[in-house]
């Protein structure tokens, strides 16, 4: 039976029911719907809006429904219009007319707004746990490889020397922001819309603060229209997931590159790789590629939410039923991608020698060569830049590197050069001397790891 019978003289067309139904999506909020209903019923009884004996009967009945759903003794009816209808009808069937009093001073509009908030709050806590696990793995790897010299890139061209630890700490910073972004979204979401009713509140003397406190929420919404019409929190959480997926996709792209024969900076564990149906030599980074690919669907979820909301007048409109599928998919996809990423990183083999060899071949110490002329010989930087560029061209012509180019060739370009240049362009020294705050010197990396671990302990 529909909750809105009475006004209508005929049954809805079955196709209308099918199109209107949201049970396949919102059934995952069953426990949250029951939690909200228990708090609402307790408040109704405490405020004398319904008899306390009926409130107690409702609460007891709801708890048995929750337990039966959890154990599997009760299955959700796929023909129910939505989870709210299903729970109320099962309750009424079990406890009689008292169950019909549960919906006093409440609308499905403020009810669903609450359910989504409660559900997403739990899911965000789970995502933060997964992100903290990812952060811990990144910090462990960064600490272990704080002094592993590798080429840093711009435009995908070897640019300047960094360390693998420093590179990974860049992703650690991204993950820290991801955690903070989710926390910030939850902070704004952590209010109860119950009491907003359909749109204009209610004439019943509700204690909204009591309901919020029972649900562990920090407060209540301040405007009844906004209480039922707001879906900013869905868009915010989906956006936070999308930004996080950008980070996971970038990291995955680098994993794909690094494990290729062209780079060979890492070797992925067999447990997190796949093969080819026709090429027996292949070892493919499919998991990283899937993470990279799945980022697009999360971006689409954000677009769907924003597009759905952009033209809606206040207050509730049925369009908003589409909010759950999009935001649920965003959190589901992010969680799914984090699940294999953590063990994939923790089990990979880092090939430090290959990283060092690549760093030696890319003239990534050219800036240090120019800086040597500036600091040790007083040559203006623009002149030093041109001199070094000429030396690089000479190295390319002769098939040499700056380390193997004879001093006589240096001096043929600029007489100011002496043996000190070879110490200045040593890759380890180039990295070790970059002690500026935020730089790649190993001591900086270790300090950054320590600081991030201290933050992690507070999250």
| Helix-residue proportion | 55-70%
- Topology, number of strands: 6
Query: What kind of sheet is the major sheet?
Result: 2 strands, antiparallel
Distance from first to last alpha carbon: 46 Å
Low-confidence stretches: none
Average pLDDT confidence is: 95
* CA-based gyration radius: 30 Å
Provide the domain count: 3
User: Shape, please?
Assistant: elongated
The CATH first-level class of the largest domain comes to: Mainly Alpha
Structure description:
It is a single chain. It is built from 19 helices and 6 strands. The chain is mainly alpha-helical and 459 residues long. The mean pLDDT is 95. The protein is elongated and about 100 Å long. The chain has 3 domains: 14-104, Fumarase/aspartase (N-terminal domain) (Fumarase C, Chain B, domain 1, Orthogonal Bundle), CATH 1.10.275; 109-204 and 217-357, Up-down Bundle (Fumarase C, Chain A, domain 2); 361-458, Fumarase/aspartase (C-terminal domain) (Ribonucleotide Reductase Protein R1, domain 1), CATH 1.10.40.30.
Write a brief structural summary:
This protein is mostly helical and 459 residues long. Helix content is 63%, strand content 5%.
Topology diagram in text:
Blueprint: H1 14-20, H2 23-26, H3 30-46, H4 52-71, H5 83-95, H6 108-144, E1 149-154, E2 157-163, H7 164-189, E3 191-192, H8 208-214, E4 219-220, H9 224-229, H10 232-258, E5 266-267, H11 286-309, H12 323-347, E6 349-350, H13 352-360, H14 366-377, H15 381-398, H16 407-413, H17 420-424, H18 427-432, H19 442-458
Parallel strand pairs: 3-4
Antiparallel strand pairs: 1-2, 5-6
């Amino acid at each position: 039976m529909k909750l809105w019978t009475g006004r209508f003289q005929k049954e809805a067309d079955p196709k209308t029911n099918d199109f209107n139904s949201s049970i396949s999506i919102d059934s995952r909020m069953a426990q949250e719907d029951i939690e909200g209903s228990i708090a609402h019923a307790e408040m109704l009884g405490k405020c004398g809006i319904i008899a306390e004996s009926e409130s107690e009967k409702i609460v007891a009945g709801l708890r048995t429904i929750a337990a039966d759903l959890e154990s599997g003794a009760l299955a959700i009816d796929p023909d129910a219009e939505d989870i709210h209808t299903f729970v109320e009808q099962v309750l009424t069937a079990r406890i009689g007319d008292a169950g019909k009093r549960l919906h006093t001073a409440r609308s499905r509009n403020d009810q669903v707004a609450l359910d989504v908030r409660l559900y997403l709050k739990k899911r965000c806590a789970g995502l933060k746990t997964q992100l903290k696990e990812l952060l811990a793995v990144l910090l462990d790897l960064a600490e272990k490889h704080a002094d592993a010299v590798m080429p840093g890139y711009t435009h995908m061209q070897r640019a300047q020397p960094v360390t693998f630890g420093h590179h990974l700490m860049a992703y650690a910073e991204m993950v820290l922001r991801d955690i903070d972004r989710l926390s910030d979204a939850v902070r704004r979401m952590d209010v109860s819309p119950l009491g907003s009713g359909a749109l204009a509140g209610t004439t019943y003397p509700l204690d909204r603060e009591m309901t919020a406190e029972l649900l562990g929420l920090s407060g209540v919404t301040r405007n009844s229209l906004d209480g039922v019409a707001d879906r900013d929190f869905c868009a915010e959480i989906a956006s936070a997931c999308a930004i996080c997926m950008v980070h996971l996709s970038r990291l995955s792209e680098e994993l794909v590159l690094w494990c290729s024969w062209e780079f060979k900076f890492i070797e992925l564990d067999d447990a997190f790789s796949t093969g080819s149906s026709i090429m027996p030599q292949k070892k493919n980074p499919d998991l990283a590629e899937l993470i990279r690919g799945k980022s697009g669907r999360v971006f689409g979820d954000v677009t769907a939410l924003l597009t759905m909301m952009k033209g809606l007048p206040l207050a509730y409109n049925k369009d908003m039923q589409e909010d759950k599928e999009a935001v649920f998919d965003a959190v589901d996809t992010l969680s799914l991608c984090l699940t294999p990423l953590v063990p994939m990183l923790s089990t990979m083999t880092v090939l430090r020698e290959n990283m060092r060899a690549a760093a030696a071949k890319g003239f990534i110490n050219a800036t240090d060569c120019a800086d040597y002329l500036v600091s040790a010989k007083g040559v203006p930087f623009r002149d030093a830049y041109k001199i070094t560029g000429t030396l690089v061209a000479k190295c390319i012509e002769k098939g040499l590197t700056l380390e193997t180019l004879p001093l006589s060739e240096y001096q043929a370009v600029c007489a100011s050069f002496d043996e000190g240049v070879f110490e200045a362009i040593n890759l380890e020294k180039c990295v070790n001397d970059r002690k500026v705050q935020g730089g790649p010197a190993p001591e900086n990396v270790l300090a950054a790891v320590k600081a991030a671990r201290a933050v992690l302990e507070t999250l």
